[in-house]
Amino acid sequence: MSLITITEVKKRFGDNEVLKGINLDVDKGEVIAIIGKSGSGKSTLLRCVNGLETINDGSISVAGAQLLPGEAALKALRLKIGMIFQSFNLFPHLSAGRNVMLSQMVVKKTPKPQAEEMARRMLDRVGLLHKFDAYPDELSGGQQQRVAIARALAMEPLGLLCDEITSALDPELVNEVLAVVKELASEGMTLLMVTHEMRFARDVCDRVVFMHEGRVHEIGAPDTVFSNPQTPELKQFLGML
Amino acid sequence: MIEFTLWDILRNLLLATRWTILLSLVSFVGGGIVGLVVMFMRISANKAVATAARAYIELFQGTPLLMQLFLAFFGLALLGMTVPAWLAAGLALILWTASFLAEIWRGCVEAIAKGQWEASASLGMGRIQQLRYVILPQALRIAIPPTVGFSVQVVKGTALTSIIGFVELTKAGTAVTNATFQPFTVYGLVALIYFALCWPLSRTSQVLERKLNVAHHNH
């Protein structure tokens, strides 16, 4: 049964049609990498799934929650699916622990002791329990991104959207974040990720989506997509031409 | 002819300074409250509300404070309302201060990175919650230096209320000059008193700016 259903989604920025009718179903527990050139619409697609962008046509639903305008509908959707950003976006005025506690207490009205307990558990899960009281500017980029993952996980989403989550990291910090993502994948978390880490996509993902000019150009198992690309565009993207 | 000592002059001026200080405080606090409301309207998602707030800000920033004082004092009188000078002065200064503070604070809210809005939205927070827990605590930090800095403008702005007859420092200066015929001494003292009020404020603003910029670690 699919968790995320994307049907004929179109998105325009002014005259520029960025998504030209996207169809994609993501099953529960599936890990999907979206690859493609910059400007192919992959990040926009991810942001649409979370309601950070409105769509002009088509429909998106996550576990029965439809993407609709209005705060209540958006909240319902966002409680089902979390998002991790390229630039971490931790709240700089709060400690790591508080970052993880805030939305639980504000959105879910979780009492503070439970929120704190959950925060400790989630920070432990990403290997940062000892940084509970550290502020974001005292953490490395990789640590900040792991806190951001813990923050999203604390809301107990059914899936996570990862928008180039290692692109802003120094090379030596990429692996610690990918290790966390890999573990999430092995625990059965549904992941839809835009990534430039081809090796990672090949090793961890169930399916790879190649986007080109606002369309799903090729889709398939990583072995097929990477070893046997069908279209010249994908061949060129993979550096095979 | 009566001789006035320097102390006589200074004492009268200092007594009037109380009213300058009181008017400044009332204008600043009142303007802060109204300004906060206008700022929220200005950043509202509702277009009509935001436009109304922008019109308010442009109107009060785009006309001289003196005209606003005249309108509050003489204009309301024309409508049959007797407005005492202190009320007209307070009202005009509050509305004028609000228009500037609203715009200063809007700038501070908009200086917060877009990612903060997106991250808090993606966690399910509504707009009010985003403002309350994520945006405003950060905006407050950067708002303090310009807000304190603007308070200097408010103090100096109170001088204009002397023209509609509110007896504060400047008005007292004029009265004392008329009695003593020593304009240079009197207005020199008046200027010094204003400086003594304003300089600590601008210094505080500078110190705060440096502190909040440098000490990013002292949360």
CATH hierarchy class name of chain B? Mainly Alpha
Termini distance of chain B? 63 Å
The stretches of 5 or more residues of chain B where confidence is low (pLDDT under 50) are: none
Largest interface (CB within 8 Å) is between: A-B, 31 and 22 residues
How confident overall, as mean pLDDT of chain B? 92
Largest sheet of chain B: none
Instruction: Give the fraction of residues assigned to helices of chain A.
Output: 25-40%
Q: Would you tell me which CATH topology of chain B applies?
A: MetI-like fold
Q: What's the β-strand tally of chain B?
A: 0
Query: Topology as H/E string of chain A?
Result: EEEHEEHEHHHEHEHEEHH
Summarize the structure in words:
The complex is a heterodimer of chains A (241) and B (219). By secondary structure, chain A is α/β, with parallel strands linked by helices. Chain A is 38% helix and 26% strand. The longest helix of chain A has 16 residues. Chain B has one domain: MetI-like fold (Orthogonal Bundle), CATH 1.10.3720.10. Classes of the chains: A alpha/beta (241), B mainly alpha (219).
Please describe the structure with a list of short key phrases separated by commas or semicolons.
heterodimer; A: 241 residues; alpha/beta; 6-stranded mixed β-sheet; 26% strand; B: 219 residues; mainly alpha; MetI-like fold; 80% helix; elongated
SSE blueprint and pairings:
The complex is a heterodimer of chains A (241) and B (219).
Chain A: E1 2-13, E2 16-27, E3 31-35, H1 42-49, E4 57-62, E5 65-66, H2 71-80, E6 81-84, H3 96-107, H4 112-125, H5 141-153, E7 159-163, H6 171-186, E8 190-194, H7 198-204, E9 207-212, E10 215-220, H8 222-227, H9 232-237
Parallel strand pairs in A: 3-8, 3-9, 6-7, 7-8
Antiparallel strand pairs in A: 1-2, 1-4, 4-5, 9-10
Helix pairs in contact in A: 3-4, 3-5, 4-5, 5-6
Chain B: H1 6-42, H2 47-61, H3 65-78, H4 85-110, H5 114-122, H6 127-157, H7 169-180, H8 183-214
Helix pairs in contact in B: 1-2, 1-4, 1-6, 1-7, 1-8, 2-4, 3-4, 4-6, 5-6, 6-8, 7-8
